[in-house]
Amino acid sequence: MEKLEELKQYTLEEYEELLHSNRINTDYKDEDGEIEYSTYKDTIFAIPDFRVPRLYHELEPYIKKAKKFNIPYTLEEIGKVDLKDDENKEQHCIIIKLEFAIQLNGWKFIASIDHTSNGNIIRNISGVDLPEKFRTVDSYCEHCHTDRRRKSTYVVYNDTDGFKQVGKSCLFLYTGIDLSKIASAMDIWNYIHKYSEISGDEYEDYGYGHRSSSCDAIEVLTLAWKLINIFGYVKKGSNAVSTMNRYCEALNYLDGSMKRYQEKRYKEYSKFLEENNIKFFTDEDFENADKVREWIMKQKVTSDYMNNLHVIFSNFEEGDRTLLGETYHYKTCYMDKKYRAIVVSAVQTYLREMNLIEEKKQKHDKEMESKHVGTVGEKIEFVLKDIKVLTSWENKFSYYPTTTYKYKITDENGNIYIWQTTTYVNIENCLKSTTTVKGKIKEHSEYNGVKQTILTHCKFN
Predict the structure, then answer these.
(1) pLDDT band at 192 (very low <50, low <70, confident <90, very high)
(2) What would the pLDDT profile of 100-153 be if each residue is shown by its tens digit?
(3) Burial, 408: exposed, middle or buried (Cβ in 10 Å; 0-12, 13-18, 19+)?
(4) Where are the domains of the chain?
(5) Whole-angstrom Cα distance, residue 182 to residue 105?
(6) Does pTM top 0.70 for this prediction?
(7) Is residue 353 classed as helix, strand or coil in its secondary structure?
(8) How far apart are CA 226 and CA 282, in angstroms?
(9) Closest to 453 measured CA to CA, from 426, 425, 427, 414
(10) How far apart, in Å, are the Cα atoms of 419 and each of 241, 370, 416?
(11) Residue 72, SS3?
(12) How far apart are CA 250 and CA 273, in angstroms?
């Protein structure tokens, strides 16, 4: 950084003229070539003098790469100006010109590879199938040709060169980066308030990641099993509340966070559990979670998803421990918390596969025997044989938000009924205490060739 006294002093009017004259204007055109809208990018920034060292610190790794690979850029101090910040306090600012925006042609981000002691965990956000070699590759960067111990590497792709594995410091060359965003975040007029308490050289290393704490994959499986059996499985990104969101909510309830910060929701949740006699982490839940884990470890690795589950559950430990004179049996499988969504989905994968196997053996043949019962509009009563929840979703747009459940009911003759309702049914209690079901026939339908009777206003006796 140049000495302050050697820099030209700008007035506010001179600075604004300099700012506007150095903006890069860009026109965005539609399919017919007509200008749809225009925008601009600043290349001139007024950085408070005490933030300048931080800016250089942020830019340093990118500038090194630019020099190494002969990438043109502009970074210079061209003057100084006194400006008022958003709290009306005058700040001595350094005027910096920065032009640095690159991306190697045609590359797109595909996946990240976490290199663990038990193997690689691949997080693929693109939907593109990766070659199997990435399940076992070392943490090698194919751009700078270095092989060192990295926690993660990244896979990029273009049509000419195919897949390429790169390290974090080289990734920006392929995904693109505009360093003006870093400068803009520190500009006195566009300042991000997370820096607002920084003064002088007393700044923190904002923007740097920290290691996630670990959790027990067995406990994640156990809680997910219970929730999926209550609400059914809902993918993230759908209109309904996802199973992962329900998992996080249950976790907040169990660890006390909900009670401390969402007292009203805590009371509602407690009432729901009490009224429906729902208990988390029962012996039966743990047994079912263990079945899921054992089934996963017996499967062949034919996909990145199954490879990830194998790597996670390879941490499984089982044995006996003595504490305060008492011996107890334990099962643990510690993992990073960022893999919880993968483990939660494993329950649905297991249930889906079990259902497929069951269907191949007997289910489909039995369901094909189902017949339409009664006539539309008729009230009927039948003997209950089985009931299960197919799915559930939140009604966000109603005045009082509710959850809708879709149940599949089977009678003693194998006839199938579908009931869609906002009433929660505790399936375990229902199967133990209910003998008959009353309901009104809404319509007759078919699903995959199986005849179904659609019901409303069901009551269990």
Answers:
(1) very low
(2) 766 666 888 899 999 999 999 999 978 889 999 999 999 999 998 999 889 999
(3) middle
(4) 4-101+178-195, 108-175, 215-363, 369-460
(5) 23
(6) no
(7) helix
(8) 9
(9) 414
(10) 20, 16, 10
(11) coil
(12) 11
- Residue appearing with tokens 């009927």: 380
Which DSSP helix (H) or strand (E) runs through 163?
A: strand 162-166
A 10 A CB-CB count for 441 gives 19
Q: What is the pLDDT of residue 32?
A: 57
Judging by DSSP bridges, how do beta strands 334-336 and 214-216 pair with one another? Answer: antiparallel
Q: Which of 365, 383, 363 is nearest to 373 (CA)?
A: 383
- Token pair for 214: 């670990």
**β-pairing, 119-124 with 146-147?**
unpaired
Backbone angles phi, psi at 52, to 5 degrees: -60, -45
Instruction: Give the DSSP letter of residue 360.
Output: I
Give me the residue label for tokens 């509710």: 402
Q: Any idea which fold 369-460 has?
A: OB fold (Dihydrolipoamide Acetyltransferase, E2P) (2.40.50)
* Distance from C-alpha of 459 to C-alpha of 461, rounded to nearest angstrom: 7
Nearest to 426 by CA among 387, 457, 391: 387
